[in-house]
Write a structure and sequence with these properties.
Layout (H helix, E strand, L loop, with lengths): L1 E3 L6 H17 L6 E2 L18 E3 L8 E3 L2 E10 L1 H4 L3 E9 L9 E6 L2 E7 L7 E7 L7 E10 L15 E4 L5 E4 L23 E6 L6 H18 L4 E6 L7 E7 L1 H7 L9 E6 L3 E7 L3 H10 L14 H10 L9 E3 L8 E3 L3 E10 L10 E10 L8 E6 L2 E7 L6 E11 L6 E10 L4 H4 L2 H4 L6 E3 L4 E3 L7 E3 L2 H13 L2 E6 L4 H17 L5 E6 L9 E6 L5 H6 L4 H7 L9 E2 L7 H12 L13 H7 L12 H15 L1 H17 L13 E8 L9 E6 L2 H11 L2 H4 L6 E5 L4 E5 L5 E3 L6 H14 L1 H23 L8
Parallel strand pairs: 13-14, 13-15, 15-17, 29-30, 29-31, 31-34
Antiparallel strand pairs: 1-9, 2-32, 3-12, 4-11, 5-10, 6-9, 6-11, 6-12, 7-8, 7-10, 16-17, 18-27, 19-26, 20-25, 21-24, 21-26, 21-27, 22-23, 22-25, 28-37, 33-34, 33-35, 35-36
Length: 800
């Protein structure tokens, strides 16, 4: 059934609500004064207690906007036996574009491959609440797969560009499962996967220890949380380091001796050598006890394996497959994947533009080069009578990689139509692949929107369509955020990756622990992360520095290619001494905005465009041009110089050759882009000293409070996948991530014993350096000519 709800918490409305409330506070004279750093513990205003009968869904890398004429989203959801035995309801709050036609747009829910219901979309103008009753047996104990599929049609337009106006946004705070009984009924360690995420799909994890300067104990706890996150399917981990065992949502981890547990106020005191789960109001506490620190190290290392396994793999096969797609592992050479493996389903489509998306993760040492292709073998067909402009276009990471015209007037059915996607189009880490099918007919020009709903299918895509992964070169290129943050740092470090903080404060330790758990999840068990206080040595092979701008030295910033003056100019807050607003509750969205605005600007926050949505703010940014203003003296001079160089063909040609040859030996420094007024976090990489082999990654923000909050945001799967190149910047006001996509400065050999890999690496390097390739061919031809001449010279001429 459906019912309208108030439009105060739709995704677009959240930004308006936050900023309107902030404006009201400022106009009323309510100010959060700056003071010494305070642990974020109490809210400024009272908040309603969380609804424990409602279970939100985990965060997705693909976001929550259903766009175009057909789209889908899928979540793995783990339930305990207590939860699965209850009658449940799936609730969904949706906000759609005004162009979505209610008569022809529907949303369908499937659980574990079984369709349970379909409802019309009437979410334009105000959010729409949809409820699906789940029959007994629909949900299983263990993993389940929830899949939403949307079909949307335009109200008035029938051309292909109008399909980009169709969208429906899912509100993560009000979308999920509702049960009558709020208790979890935990029985085993894998049941930790049943913990509900928060309103944005993040899982709150707390480490409780008495001495915050004990980095060995903190590293031990981070290792346990990393294994829990990886095995139970936590896609967005947020870690808080605390000194007290107060009740809190999510998972709280306490490790210690009996004396330490009593001092911390642990809710349970298990016998040494044991652990116990304590279910409380809105959260669960895992208590681990041992006689001494060595025993704690040994017991903590066992968590996640053997009799203490965390693997949440029971339940339906669809649920296990959905979990694999939520946290994908790298694909190996020789692998064959079908669209069914990647989450797509066979579909018949009668619209104008169908888009099928999936993610493909490649290892951190994948070397992008023109050494081969990933073959996409399409299975499907198209109807007769399509316009000649109809086509299939495949995009990889937003760039066109291959295409296929649908030009046969009689239509066609194919089972193995191969499109070749160059390996150069992919990158280490997560890659987005989109198959777009444009199918227009003469009837679209007449544009009878209601009659079009009953037209026969125009296109068929079968989920047996497959991708064949070839042998690809393995060579780790650095700096590269997308390569290093998905396992490359562990490979560079040879195992353990140290994360340094300048001071052991709760904010900095929480930010470091959050980043450490996220890094450890992508290492796939091939490395570990440790927390340390201080500053790394210049020859540290793969160090991560996490700290507020005022706490990092200019030399540390310069090691990652950051200019301290550039950051100081952008973050010209009243103080950069780490001061934070008092009584900050980091989980409150309004106070998060106050922290971000107070940390990065002297100006009135209301005048910074903060009442726009992220999309509106991005659209409102003026286009910047690298050319001078038309009609200015600089523009006239530039035009004359260009005309003069174009006339001098010889000089122009020699200049291009000189640039190309110089590029073979000296790589010019990539200019760093300016910071926007709302930039809240900067992540950059570089080498402190090229001759020492050290490599540093710096994560910095204007203040400790802004650092803690911004790191929480950046580890979300949709943000984490955007980190690439030498430097990334996160703007908390707009919610956008910008990057400097420079080429790696150096490479790390990861497969030294493989001659086949060396051949692929050499071929890849030559494919990217055509002048070097031509020079080698010329040198080889010259050597052959000299050798031939030398061989023929002694024989002379034979006379009869």
């Amino acid at each position: 059934m459906t019912s309208p709800v108030r439009p105060t918490t739709s995704q677009a409305g959240v930004w308006l609500l936050r900023s309107t409330a902030l404006a009201a506070m400022l106009l009323a004279g309510v100010v959060l004064p700056a003071a010494a750093p305070v642990v974020a513990s109490e809210p400024v205003a009272s908040e309603p207690a969380p609804d424990r009968t409602f279970r939100p869904l985990p965060a997705l890398a693909g976001g929550l906007r259903l766009s175009g004429e057909s789209d889908h989203r899928e979540w793995p959801v783990y339930l305990t036996r207590t939860q699965a035995a209850q009658p449940g309801v799936f609730e969904l709050v949706l906000t759609s574009a005004v162009s979505v036609m209610p008569e022809g747009s529907t949303l369908r829910l499937a659980v574990n491959g079984q369709t349970l219901g379909e409802q019309p979309i009437k979410a334009f103008g105000q959010p729409q609440l949809l409820r699906f009753d789940l029959p007994p047996g629909a949900l299983q104990p263990g993993l389940n797969a929830l899949r939403l599929t949307v079909s949307q049609r335009h109200r008035v337009a029938c051309d292909t560009p109008s399909t980009y106006e169709l969208w429906s946004d899912i509100d993560p705070a009000r979308t999920g499962l509702r049960f009558a009984d709020a208790s979890l009924g935990l029985e085993t360690l894998p049941d930790l996967a049943a913990l509900a995420p928060d309103s944005r799909g993040a899982q709150r994890l707390r480490i409780v220890q008495g001495d915050l300067t004990d980095t060995l104990a903190l590293t031990r706890a981070v290792g346990v949380l990393t294994r829990i996150a990886r095995e139970t399917g936590i896609s967005h981990p947020i870690v808080e380091v605390s000194g007290s065992a107060r009740p809190a949502p999510g998972l709280t981890l306490i490790l210690g001796t009996p004396t330490e547990l009593r001092a911390l106020g642990s809710p349970a005191l298990p016998q040494p050598g044991n652990l116990t789960l304590v279910e409380g109001e809105g959260g669960v506490t895992l208590v681990v006890a041992e006689q001494d620190q060595d025993g704690l190290d040994a017991l903590a290392a066992r968590i996640g394996s053997g009799d203490l396994s965390l693997a949440a793999r029971s339940g339906s096969a669809d649920g296990a497959a959905a979990l694999d797609r939520l946290l994908p592992r790298p694909v190996e050479p020789g692998t064959t994947l079908t669209l069914a493996d990647l989450g797509a389903r066979t579909s018949e489509f009668n619209g104008r533009l169908q888009r099928t998306r999936f993610d493909l993760r490649l290892p951190d040492d994948f070397f992008p080069a023109e050494t081969g292709t990933i073959n996409l073998s399409l299975a499907g067909g198209y109807a007769a009578g399509l316009d000649p402009s109809s086509q299939i276009v495949v995009r990889v990471n937003g760039e066109v990689a291959a295409g296929l015209p649908l030009s046969d007037p009689a239509g066609d059915v194919f089972a193995d139509k191969v499109l070749r996607l160059s390996l150069k189009a992919f990158r280490p880490g997560l890659n987005s692949v989109e198959i777009t099918t444009q199918t227009e007919t003469a009837a679209d020009r007449q544009c009878d929107t209601l009659a079009a709903l009953h037209e026969p299918p125009r296109f068929l895509l079968v989920d047996e369509t497959r991708l064949d992964i070839p042998a690809y070169p393995r060579l780790l290129g650095l700096p590269s955020l997308n390569a290093s943050l998905t396992g490359g740092l562990a490979r560079k470090a040879g195992g353990d990756v140290p994360v340094y903080v300048p001071f052991a404060t709760p904010d900095m330790l929480s930010a470091a622990a959050t980043l450490a758990v996220r890094l450890g999840m992508d290492m796939d068990g091939q490395g570990s992360v440790s927390i340390r206080v201080g500053r790394p040595q210049p020859d540290e092979p793969a160090a991560v520095l996490v700290g507020a701008f005022g706490d990092l030295s200019p030399a540390a910033l310069a090691a990652a290619g950051l200019d301290a003056g550039r950051l100081r100019a952008a973050w010209s807050a009243p103080t950069l001494d780490g001061s934070t607003p008092q009584m900050v509750n980091a989980s409150n969205p309004l106070q998060r905005r106050v922290v971000s605005l107070q940390s990065i600007s002297r100006s009135d926050p209301v005048m910074t465009g903060s009442i726009r949505t992220p999309q509106e703010a991005a659209a409102a940014q003026p286009e910047r041009s690298l050319t001078a203003t038309p009609g200015s003296s600089d523009e006239v001079m530039q035009r004359w110089l260009q005309a003069h160089e174009d006339r001098d063909l010889l000089r122009s040609t020699l200049s291009r050759v000189e640039t190309a040859v110089t590029g073979l030996f000296v790589r010019p420094d990539s200019p760093r882009q300016p910071l926007t007024p709302g930039t809240t976090l900067v992540i950059a990489q570089g080498r402190p000293m090229a001759e020492t082999g050290g490599f540093w990654t710096v994560v910095t923000a204007p203040s400790p409070a802004a650092l803690s909050i911004a790191v929480e945001d950046i580890v979300a799967p949709g943000m984490w996948r955007q980190l690439a190149g030498h430097e990334a910047r996160y703007d908390m006001q707009t919610g956008l991530v910008t990057t400097d996509a420079g080429a790696p400065d150096f490479h790390v050999v990861t497969a030294p014993e493989s001659a086949a890999n060396w051949r692929l690496v050499a071929a890849g390097w030559l494919s990217g350096n055509p002048l070097a390739y031509a020079g080698l061919l010329l040198a080889a031809a010259l050597c052959l000519a000299l050798a031939t001449g030398r061989a023929l010279r002694p024989g002379g001429q034979v006379r009869s």
